[in-house]
TrEMBL record, chains A, B, C, D:
Protein name from the UniProt record: Gfo/Idh/MocA family oxidoreductase
Coiled coil residues, start to end: none
Residue span, GFO/IDH/MocA-like oxidoreductase domain: 145-289
InterPro entries xref list: Gfo/Idh/MocA-like_OxRdtase_N (IPR000683), Gfo/Idh/MocA_oxidrdct_glycsds (IPR050463), GFO_IDH_MocA-like_dom (IPR055170), NAD(P)-bd_dom_sf (IPR036291)
Keywords: Oxidoreductase
A Pfam family annotated for this UniProt entry: GFO_IDH_MocA
Domain Gfo/Idh/MocA-like oxidoreductase N-terminal residue range list: 5-125
Length: 388, 388, 388, 388
């Protein structure tokens, strides 16, 4: 029987549900070197957090995250709350000797992210690890993309083309949720979904963004307050009071990478008809690849070595040889959104057991944060080229 | 707190893993009127079944399915073993007053399926229910297809076009597993995957197949024995002893439905490059729809009412309004293969709690079995038209 | 300056326009060994045929096809009239020493097709050639498919899957045109579009259909008469008199090939939403290919030699190395429907200049005709297996 | 019989072949109010231009474009030569009272374009018209896109997403052709293909770009000289002498439109695997549309009015009701690249006959030129925001 890894999680909304599923499911499909135990869930409202704990499978609940960190029977803190709380919680947890899994974006500012990274470095020296939850890295098709680039299959990279297109704010009466409040979320489409494609692009391409030129836009300046939150979009109304949207609806930027590639990035929640089009295309001198989360089990791969009969191959990334998929179903039996969270748990637990740094580290996430900051700076300065 | 529903499952291979995940997961995302408890898992080998029980989350294990049925703390028997055992187990369980969930195809012969249906009818009179596991019905996009047909959107149906294309037997050295042994599996591609498209076609179209004309083919007559089973395909070898393949590699048939529609069906494991292409297209006089499991979160819908600007719409069947999906993730965050099993549990538990017949009933599955038999009869009689 | 090849064409509807374009265009993009001259166009109505000749680019017109054949300044007769006239015209032309290009299907019966083939054989001995217009063979992507099969890339073929899906008869008030009158057209969807996929399947696969089992259906038994003909569908009306539809609306059949492959074929004009889905998929033991005319510039090719990263490649069949395309535009600048007719002219003129038999010969077309007859026979005899 | 419109064309490479085809073909499929006559072709080499005239269907040839303009029997000058010659020829022709069709981009500088526009305005006052050859406007699917936006179907536009991706320069040994010489072509990917998406975006969206922020890149600085030109790419060699590439390989920019929309544009010849991916997506508040030239007969249209069952519709833009397509083939029988040129001739001839300004006018093309200049200026000034 493996030793257990006792987990305490903070927050139980969308991300909390996804993380809970991952903790429950990982040991059922993968052989883990440590047995995760879902020890405690923390939230502010005692009744709601207790109900959530029962529903999601946690053994107990806490109403103060500080108390969770103090518990001796908790080894790892899983942070699923808005970005404004990340730094305080993560640093406290690391200082208390708890491993940390923190949702992305790492923080609401570069400064916070730097402090978190420093705390993570200090903790690492004591065998305590921190990881940031850029879960899309663990989507099998994107992991396969990373492997192909690493293998040298693409040759020198010329172009990176990344989009994260959603449409849930197109309706002008969609309500003002925390995601539209800069003090809580840090930014809008940029940090929420732009961060994902920045991380994915740098990780898959194996290079770093060195500078950006950006524009940002808020199409709808005011939205109804007080609507119940349902899914991402919530339910608002056109007649009630409105409050200001303080974040961006869309962020667009061009970029250069340290290997000479150029890139285009676009994050928006106003691309009507695109529901979760997290897309990445990379063109190399020898081969290209393309991914779209709306068809998440496929990776498109073009290999010029195929000669005149080259063409983008639709690889179903569900073969036993592909990352993670051998532990699930036969080929062609697709996985879903939440599987990436399960794989995140698998890799995190494996790294902790092996005494290795899980990835993305806080330092990796800080690199994303610096790009986010450069985008905001450029957008605020006539799109001037801004180095990262 | 809801009353519990104590489940005993038999078999723990591919289907056992999928069903276990469903029992574990359903109460985490859906509000169930009864709380499923994973009471016991049955298998022949004591060590392997005990290990599987631990891995998959069952409280205990049994080495004789009869013993499982005898247990007072078991309310429902979930049958995940090859088809040759379905009839005996299901009938015994129903007679013992246990609800039954039985994998498809219902049986290896119409005779067995009739006996099972009779047992289910008798049990139903006592408030005990039986359901057959045609899980694809609970894939949201296919459920949405069913809703669209039921709403009258398609008008009179002209064509049904169904394919289930896999390729895992293309390699002549793929090993001789139980799925290729008629005494265990009943048939090959016909019962394994053909059954799924027959059920899906009749269910979505809302009509019944009245006759068929068929051909069946076994391309590779002998295969290596003794290979370890891995995934669906297993690992064989070209040098060892070989044994006869006693089932069909492919089954193709034309069909007529009781509403005047005509159909074409094809099931094969030799469609190289098609991994799990479970496809259904229905053309009505007013609208059409098309589905392919390789892109399982989409339903294509063509509505002639859109006029000259009609075109097949790629509906992402992940909206809150769509079947099942509101309980999962935001729109565009796709589900995977196993979610259909979770939905199957949700609907089964709901039906039992409400004292309603869950669907597909054994009688529904018997209708599929009769089509399978007609296909085999026609293929054995010069493709002559054979009524169902 | 090349010698000229003087062409006389009969008929100037849909096919006449396509053929005229081909005769006009072929010498502009290809170097032809003979210079086609558009000498005369024949039709029944003097005014309409004269106007058509001017519009389509013919030097003169005739009102009797017999007169066209008698003209010394005509070397080749291009037959673009309904099938009931093919045999008489083609045989007369061949006997008069004129080369013949005859639209498909070759004839309205096997008997006629045999007579035509005999006339073609006799003419060939005198250096006079006959060709049947299965134009889809000259769509570059399908020609590339043929090359791939011939190269051995696919290995032994297991499955042929062919569909020709249109929807222009879905409307019950579409008018009764000549295509729905068996005495003129010979059959409905079977001969009109089914013939295309039968020819394409046998040609690309490089094998012959040996037997079939079929069903045919006429969904709408009566249609309005007297509507003006517009496009394929015409304009009818719901209130006027109606006449009987004497041909099939849909033809579906299974087939076996002489190399052991099995096939499924479906031709219909009731597949709502499918406009011109002429599709062919072939699964071999080593590779597969798939084509859909609705995306006519692409060929999908799956090569198992690509290993775990295999996937259907979308080859844009517009490379200089691909059949015909080097004479047109740069890669990715797609061709259209009519280009196949231009390529047909190129190959026909080349064969005549070289004293070689152009393909498909009448004998090739007779093989298709025999399949059509077998399909009708099987459909009329309880779908019984019918050898070709 | 219609009056004739006598055409003289200059240049006979790729564009010359496309324009010749259009002049030959337009009157065969469309009823034109003036009958185009292909009077003369001009080029520098007497033998080659004479041979080209014969091949392409021109009645005579000239070796000096000035002589062509002087001819009384020429009514319209069609300019198919590199951009450095556009201004001089077009202005001379207009001043001589000849209508002008000029290939895009209009000129190699804003200054030239302004002079040309002034000349066009002056000529227009005398009933002489000038048009710029942004042919993609006449691709039926893009024309349909324009109609949909004009109808108000999209509502306020939020996003424009335009790409023109090719890959024919990925090979470092592709030769140094005139397209890579700034003195002849003006710019690289920016003017050649970027101009197309700028024009298409502004035209379809019905709004103007007000400012841009850009980066441009030349990945391969030197290329082999003296290679034979084949297709777009030519045939070079790795051993011979090399010369400098003086244009951009890729141009990327963000943009704002005068209606509040934001845009992303990318033009490159290094997107390996993308052959002619001229793409445009527009997201409105009510509907969205998307186009990709690699599937040129389709327009994707998302209408939020379709409710929860909304999805991008794949409209086959080949219906009789769609722009231009009723004059060609039945629905689903796709058109090719060159058809847009034929449609351009149809519209140009119609406008001249009606005494109306054909579009795009030189003034429209000047608007594109100003955007090109702003992109270059921004790219040369740290990507700073540059107003148009």
């Amino acid at each position: 029987m493996s030793e257990s890894l006792n987990v305490g999680m903070i927050g139980y909304a969308f991300m909390g549900a996804a993380h809970s599923h991952a903790w429950r499911t990982a040991p059922r499909f993968f052989d883990l070197p440590l047995a995760p135990r879902m020890t405690a869930l923390a939230g502010r409202d005692p009744e709601r957090v207790a109900a959530a704990a029962t529903k999601l499978g946690w053994d107990s609940s806490e109403t103060d995250w500080r108390r969770l960190i103090e518990r001796d029977d908790v080894d790892l803190i899983d942070i699923c709350v808005p970005g404004n709380l990340h730094a305080e919680i993560a640093i406290a947890a690391l200082e208390a000797g708890k491993h940390v899994l923190c949702e992305k974006p790492l923080a609401n500012s570069v400064e916070e992210a730097e402090q978190m990274t420093a705390a993570a470095e200090a903790a690492k020296a004591k065998g305590v690890y921190a990881m940031c939850g850029f879960s899309y890295r663990r989507t099998p098709a994107l992991s396969l993309a990373k492997q192909l680039v690493e293998s040298g299959a693409l040759g020198p990279i010329r172009h990176v083309r990344a989009q994260y297109l959603q449409d849930w704010l197109t309706d002008e009466n969609a309500p003002l949720t925390w995601r539209l409040d800069k003090s809580l979320s840090g930014s809008g489409s940029l940090g929420d979904i732009g961060a994902h494609i920045i991380d994915a692009a740098q990780w898959v391409a194996g290079s770093s963004i060195t500078g950006v030129s950006a524009i940002m836009e808020t199409f709808v300046k005011e939205r109804p307050v007080g609507g119940d939150f349902v899914g991402l979009g919530g339910v608002g109304g056109s007649d009630g009071p409105k409050g200001p949207v303080t974040v961006d609806d869309a962020a667009l930027f061009t970029a250069r990478f340290d290997d000479g590639a150029v890139g285009v990035f676009e994050a928006t929640r106003f691309a009507l008809g695109r529901k979760n089009a997290m897309r990445l295309e990379i063109n190399g001198a020898k081969a290209s690849l393309a991914f779209d989360f709306e068809d998440m089990n496929s990776l498109w791969f073009y290999d010029s070595a195929d000669g005149p009969n080259s063409g983008f191959r639709k690889i179903q990334a569900t073969e036993p040889e592909h990352p993670y998929t051998g532990n699930w179903w036969p080929v062609g039996h697709g996985l879903g959104y939440e599987h990436a969270f399960t794989h995140q748990v698998v890799d995190l637990v494996g790294a902790i057991a092996n005494g290795e740094q899980p990835t993305p580290s806080f330092a990796d996430a800080l690199r994303v944060q610096r790009v986010l900051a450069a985008v905001e700076a450029s957008a605020g300065d006539e799109s001037r080229w801004t180095t990262v």
